[in-house]
Amino acid sequence: MTYTIRIGTQTRELPVISVGDVSVALLNLLGDTALTEAAAEELAKRAPEVDVFVTPEVKAVPLAHALSVRTGVPYIVARKTQKPYMVDAVQKTVLSITTGKPQDLFLDGSDVPKLRGKRVAVVDDVVSTGGTLRALSELLGDVGAQVVATLAVFTEGEERDDVISLGHLPLFDNVGEPEVL
């Protein structure tokens, strides 16, 4: 089963996959340059004025890069594993719907001065339960950044008015029917 999306001139059939009790239409920007560029073009039109974009790795990284190119706003990646090159890394734990288990987010200590006192927009591919968004916002608050917006290609599940997005993806029951929320 698939779910059809359209962004600009780009149309995709997203596979619907089970993630526990529900199924989701899986958006994967990695390797899909045309869709990523179309999403960045549309999100750049909606983005508020900010100093820095911050994105969790991995799938939203090309989107943050494309937004940075269009707007001139730099971006920082919150990593999901601590790397040996990180100095004084700052950490938060998150439970994401797509992983189904706790995972960590890390900011390299060398990025903290680039964030302290800055207006930040979080960039993600899909915001569903908001677990990653909450953990990343807390992490950014811990280092003195002010999260003023969240930009996402899609929201998923319950409608959200706290995210600037290009559309909404339904959740599906495990028989493939959209759930009524």
TrEMBL record:
Domain annotation Phosphoribosyltransferase: ranges: 37-162
Any one GO MF annotation of this record: glycosyltransferase activity
Name this protein carries in UniProt: Phosphoribosyltransferase
Gene3D superfamilies: 3.40.50.2020
InterPro entries per UniProt: PRTase-like (IPR029057), PRTase_dom (IPR000836)
Keywords for this protein: Glycosyltransferase, Transferase
Superkingdom of source: Bacteria
